[in-house]
Design a protein that fits this description.
416 residues; alpha+beta; OB fold (Dihydrolipoamide Acetyltransferase, E2P); Chloramphenicol Acetyltransferase; four-stranded antiparallel sheet; 10 helices; 19 strands; 28% helix; 24% strand
Length: 416
């Protein structure tokens, strides 16, 4: 008999254990080579575990078990023959209907009547606290059933009896009051741990500003069809914000840095983490060297990474690193928030929803599509001057994208 021991592969550097999130097969099933047999959660991503060979599988771990990298989680009997397709089970023969003249069932004996509870002097007598409540509400003690010892009316009995006397209350409402307890996944537990550590271990502050989206709206309306036809992707907001951020990071390099013990690490590249919501939670895949990307390249890469997140095919390497993060709560309707830094990065930009608001332009009140933006930063490494200057630089790029982000030629800047 040839038995293959399937061990947990290493999903990435520094990951030593994973959790069996879901078995996709049952014990004793026949599996094909490369067939997904389980989903495993690491502290960075959810990954599929494919069968290494074909055969009958024997599971050696339960869902929810935390297993070490290299640990055996199942056995595959490679000598087992593939079972032939089983025919559908024949329907069970219908039982013959009982003849109308069937013998009547014998009458069931009546259930014995429970013996009457023993009556004592305490039965129906309210306790002092209960008596006070009943007197205040004008309730006769004879109308209250006591649940205390020997039938005594307790304080809780009196309180319950007082509810209808008060004209009803939420206590008398009916409906489901069940609760469900679910264990957090390894990924969710790691996210919680990291977010709490950021709040506790960094000097995090947030600065706010607002941007005028009028010019970006105009560019998208004017060129969206031509852009999509030439590049195969839509012209979205994220490419403008990504290019505005990479420009601002080069102007304020301390925002594009991190702390390593007593040292500051500056990066001469802009690896932008883009927060993407997926079935397993918020993921932050990375655009490598985003400062060198064109608008179409940014849009294509974001689309590709978002599809991988949605389908659960994003890899650990694609989410590792990043020197700055952009998150867009506006897609869910957020008007303003204070985003939390994605460690070990030192800053994060939060985008929000776009609202038509009256603003003053050249002494006149006009209606413009406006967005609040927020930048949270680690004050240990970034001073207020740099944080405010960085956000103003982002605002300049969004307010005036043609001159600042597209080099004065909107068609050429968009690659048209």
């Amino acid at each position: 008999m040839s038995i293959l021991e399937m061990k947990v592969p290493s999903p990435g550097e520094s990951i030593t254990e994973v959790e069996i999130a879901t078995w996709l097969v049952k014990d004793g099933d026949y599996v094909e080579k490369d067939q997904p047999i389980a989903e495993v959660d690491s502290d960075k991503a959810t990954l599929e575990l494919p069968a290494e060979q074909s055969g009958v599988i024997t599971l050696k771990a339960e869902e929810g078990d935390v297993v070490q990298v290299g640990q055996v989680v199942c056995l595959i009997d490679m000598d087992a023959a593939k079972p032939a397709g089983s025919a559908p089970a024949a329907e069970a023969p219908k039982q013959e209907e009982a003849p109308k003249a069937a013998k009547q069932e014998a009458p069931k004996p009546a259930a014995p009547v429970a013996a009457a509870a023993t009556q004592t002097y305490a039965t129906g007598t309210p306790s002092p606290a209960a008596k006070k409540i009943l007197d205040e509400k004008g309730i006769d003690a004879s109308q209250v059933s006591g649940s205390g010892r020997d039938g005594r009316i307790s304080k809780s009995d009196a309180e319950l009896a007082a509810v209808p006397a008060l004209g009803g209350s939420p206590l008398s409402a009916t409906g489901s009051r069940s609760t469900t307890t679910t264990k957090l996944s390894v990924l969710r537990r790691k996210i919680a741990q990291r977010l709490v550590s950021v709040k506790n271990e960094t000097a995090m502050l947030t600065t706010f500003n607002e941007v005028d989206m009028s010019e970006i709206f105009r560019l998208r309306k004017q060129y969206k069809d031509e852009f999509a036809q030439k590049h195969g992707v839509g012209l979205g907001f994220m490419s403008f914000f990504t290019k505005a951020v990479t420009r601002a990071l080069q102007m304020y390099p301390d925002v594009n840095a991190s702390i390593d013990g007593d040292f500051k690490v500056n990066y001469d590249f802009c690896d932008i983490s883009i927060a993407v919501s997926g079935p397993k939670g918020l993921m932050v895949p990375v655009l490598r060297n985003a400062e060198n990307m064109s608008f179409s390249s940014v849009e294509a890469n974001i689309k590709d990474l978002a599809i991988k997140v949605r389908d659960g095919k994003i890899t650990v390497d694609e989410m590792t690193g990043g020197t700055f993060t952009i998150t867009n709560g506006g897609t869910f309707g957020s008007m303003m928030s204070t985003p939390i830094i994605n460690p070990p990065q030192s800053a994060i930009l939060g985008m929000h929803n776009i609202i038509q608001r009256p603003v003053a332009v050249d002494g006149q009140v006009v209606i413009r599509p406006m967005m609040y933006v927020a930048m949270s930063y680690d004050h240990r490494i970034i001073d207020g001057k740099e944080s405010v200057g960085f956000l103003v630089a982002v605002k300049e790029g969004i307010d005036n994208p043609v001159e600042i982000l597209l080099g004065g030629d909107e068609r050429k800047g968009l690659g048209l």
